[in-house]
Amino acid sequence: MSGTIEQGRHFKGPFTDECDVVVVGSGASGAAVAAVLAESGLKVIIVEEGPNVDYREHAKMRPTESMRAVWREGAFSASVGIGDNPVVNVTMGRAVGGSSTITGGVCFRTPEYVLNTWVKERHLPTLTPQNMERFFDQAEADSHVQLVPEHLRSRSTTLWDKGGSTFGASLKPTRRNITDCQGCAQCNFGCPEGRKWSVDRTYLPRALRAGARIISDCRVDNVTTSGGSATGVTGVLLNRDLKAGDTFTIRAKRVVLAAGAAHTPLLLMRSGIGKRSGQVGKNMTLHPSIRMTARFRDPVNGWQGAMQSAYTDAFEHDGVTLISVFVPPAAIMVGVPGFGPELMDRAAKFPHLAMFGGLIHDDAGGRVWKIPGREPLMTYHVARDTRPRFATALRKLAEGYIAAGAEELYLPVLGHPAVTPDEFRRLDVEKLPLRKWEVSSQHPMGTCRMGADAAHSVVNEWGQTWDVQNLTIVDGSTVPTSLGVNPQLTIMALALRFAEHLREQFARPTASAA
Ligand SMILES: Cc1cc2nc3c(=O)[nH]c(=O)nc-3n(C[C@H](O)[C@H](O)[C@H](O)COP(=O)(O)OP(=O)(O)OC[C@H]3O[C@@H](n4cnc5c(N)ncnc54)[C@H](O)[C@@H]3O)c2cc1C
């Protein structure tokens, strides 16, 4: 990133400014909207709570350092599960470039059947596959999306492919916003080779070149309104220790919220906006994800290859997508069962471990709540129709590695001992209590969902809030249902669409805001 991003932590004293559009959050959606609007000649200011960490500096960090510098709450944010529900580790980025800087790079278009659901069941008639196509094309071109070549598959991936092929689930290559990948499996912690085209390297430099102001270390605490219209934002400058310092005020003709699915609803609640719908913060989907580790007799050396190179949609209609993932060794070892000599023995066999992931297409069961302090409380209840999908994902993950010759499986279930293939076959997976499952989410969405009316949604199909004029939400919180696939391309494509609409509105200033 060029040096022209202003760092709020170095500001001396409060500041005020005014502009056509203030964008809150510089992640996948905010960056895309800012670039389009700045390039159309509008005066745009982007305010980002997190720090500005140059991608070259990020790439030098150890995973634990990256998590403290760029991930929200050091990657320890979680949704609380009440009753027989898992605690879900919900990770998010908190930096210039947002979560885009820490993705595995995987880019899926929204599946057509999901878009058709939005059109037919959510009454969003303009979100057809045909209408969305040019926005997907644009987001892919802007982000340098390309197929992962087969030679970049790790042995951890090819082993699952070998097993999955025996029951009709052979793998397809993923597409990623990564070019000339060297296959070191570090994508989530900044690409050491600088080959990942996250938005800090695509849309934000474009916005800067077009004259936008980008300011890091600025946490927006309130959207200001007057007479039912948004007029700007206020917030605080954060120093290095996240301590709130001086205040800032930005007056704007249009406020665009892109703070992500956990923080945009929090901001609305703090500003007292969105009460009419009663939907703010509700309907959160997570794409709960699990990982299966398997030990093979021969070395696998699973870290050699692209982290997320292949997937299968063979179980799409069971609500499960399986996707390769080989996270750094330290993160794998925390999930290996055993203590003392038993654990040391397993650690010595680390090169023999393979790992594959499962993502669950979930129904809305989560909620974001406002509580004292700077972070929201998240709760997540696995909806009834979603529950069997956990067992399906686990079974398929295990069956793939068993068919490929795995000797031992480490289940993502707390306290569960390692099992042999025979022991797994005898296991009643459906009876494993969900509260004990180790589940993570990188994809919170839906907390300010788009919809056809104010009774069931927070924004209309153009991201305009039902309650307040001149206030548009463009981030993952607007996505009406879970997708069943990784969401960054969907979020960027929707953001480009929202931006185009906003640009047209500025060109016709007398038109209605909705
Ligand atoms: C570890 C990880 C891996 C992922 N891998 C993939 C992948 O491979 N493929 C894929 O498709 N998706 C992936 N995702 C998901 C994807 O990154 C997100 O869905 C997407 O970036 C969300 O875009 P967004 O604009 O809604 O929010 P974000 O990109 O999260 O941006 C929100 C920004 O708003 C800022 N913000 C929040 N509150 C405030 C405030 N009050 N004031 C100012 N700024 C604020 C935040 O600090 C953040 O920078 C991954 C996510 C994570 C965390």
Provide the low-confidence segments as ranges: none
Q: Note the main sheet.
A: 8 strands, mixed
- Please estimate the helix content: 25-40%
The portion of residues forming beta strands comes to 15-25%
Q: What overall geometry do the principal axes of the alpha carbons give? A: globular
Overview of the structural elements:
This protein is an alpha/beta fold. It is built from 13 helices and 21 strands. The strands form 4 sheets. Strands 1, 2, 3, 9, 10, 11, 12 and 21 form an 8-stranded mixed β-sheet that branches. A 6-stranded antiparallel β-sheet has the order 7-14-15-16-13-19. A hairpin with a 5-residue loop joins strand 11 and strand 12. The chain is globular, with a radius of gyration of 22 Å. The mean pLDDT is 95. It binds flavin-adenine dinucleotide. The site of flavin-adenine dinucleotide has 42 residues, from helix 1, strand 10, helix 8 and helix 13. Flavin-adenine dinucleotide (FAD) is lined by residues 24-30, 47-50, 91-95, 98-100, 102-107, 188, 219-220, 258-260, 263, 267, 442-443, 475-476, 486-489, 491.
